[in-house]
Amino acid sequence: MIHVGVLASGNGTDLQSIIDASERKMIDAKVAVVISDNPQAYALERAKKHLIPFEIVEQKEKKREDIDTEITRILKNHNVDLVVGAGYMRILSKGFVKEWYGRLINIHPALLPSFKGTNGQHDALLYGVKITGCTTHFMDEEMDHGPIILQAAVKILPDDDQESLAKRILQVEHQILPRSIQLFAQHRLTIKGRCVQIKPGDSWADMYKLIPEVLYAEGY
Ligand code: GAR
Fold first, then answer.
1. Closest residue (by CA) to atom 2 of ligand 1?
2. Can you tell me the distance from the alpha carbon of 220 to that of 208, in angstroms, rounded to the nearest whole number?
3. Which residue from 7, 14, 40, 150 has its CB within 8 A of the most atoms of ligand 1, so it is best to mutate?
4. Which of 185, 186, 199, 202 would you label with 102, given CA atoms 20 to 30 Å apart?
5. Alpha carbons 177 and 196: distance in angstroms, whole number
6. Cβ proximity of 39 and 58 under 8 Å
7. What is the residue with the minimal CA distance to atom 17 of ligand 1?
8. Consecutive H or E run containing 178
9. What is the maximum alpha-carbon separation in the chain?
10. Ligand 1 atom closest to Cα of residue 43
11. Exposed e or buried b for every residue in 136-153, given b needs 16+ CB within 10 A?
12. Among the listed residues 197, 174, 157, the one whose alpha carbon sits nearest the alpha carbon of residue 22
């Protein structure tokens, strides 16, 4: 059973997907601590509801390095094996990324390397692409750049607005994020340069319902 530390800034539905997968025993992992930069984040309410320890690390007038040292201290106090960025809207320091490299994953609401940044869904819609999706990846020192674990493709529909599209992508995020954590927990992920090799094993496509019209990467 691995211990996961989750970094979240907002509503926390990605966090909830990890908590649910853990409680349903779909993953060999439990959320050991939730850390937020935002005292108002609903993610913190979710942690409370599930009796998961949480900490607020406020960022005002602090250096990024000092904030991240504080976050590392908390993660280590909770014996965290894997750190997950689940809607964490802050840039992490190079030192933090280096220390946790290979044990630090992020979810992004677009098919990287397209539409990096804090508004992946909106940017895809504005650009006019017809297919977008979501990506899990190991974080490295560049934003939304590190080796990709899983992706899933989602069609943009003619009537989509930012809200409807973000909602459909989120449903898929709630599948590939816990799945990526499970692959890590099963020691099935090997980083080779920019690429992540996934060792063969069980498949969630065989075990759980897929969303029609979504294309899931090999390894899901
Ligand atoms: C998710 O769509 C996640 O991919 C995105 O924030 C949302 C958080 O939703 N993350 C980023 O854009 C990171 N650049 P949630 O608060 O409901 O989990």
1. 109
2. 10
3. 14
4. 202
5. 15
6. yes
7. 13
8. helix 162-185
9. 49
10. 16
11. bbbbbeeebbbbbbbbbe
12. 174
Whether 34 and 15 have beta carbons less than 8 Å apart is answered as yes
- Residues marked active site are found at 108
Residue 173 Cα: closest atom of ligand 1: 4
- Give tens-digit pLDDT for 28-62: 999 999 999 999 999 999 999 999 999 999 888 88
Q: How far is the CA of 78 from the centre of ligand 1 (A)?
A: 24
> Quick one: how far is CA 122 from the chain centroid?
18
Global pTM reads 0.98
Q: Where do the domains of the chain lie, and which CATH numbers do they carry?
A: 1-100 (3.40.50.170), 109-135+151-220 (3.40.50.170)
Task: Specify the long-range contacts of residues 50-53, CB closer than 8 Å, at least 24 apart.
Answer: 50/19, 50/23, 52/19, 53/78
Query: If residue 215 lies in a helix (H) or strand (E), which one and from where to where?
Result: strand 215-216
| Each residue's pLDDT tens digit, 177-208 | 999 999 999 999 999 999 999 999 999 999 99
What residues line ligand 1, using a CB cutoff of 6 Å? Answer: 10-15, 86-87, 107-109, 118, 120, 170, 173
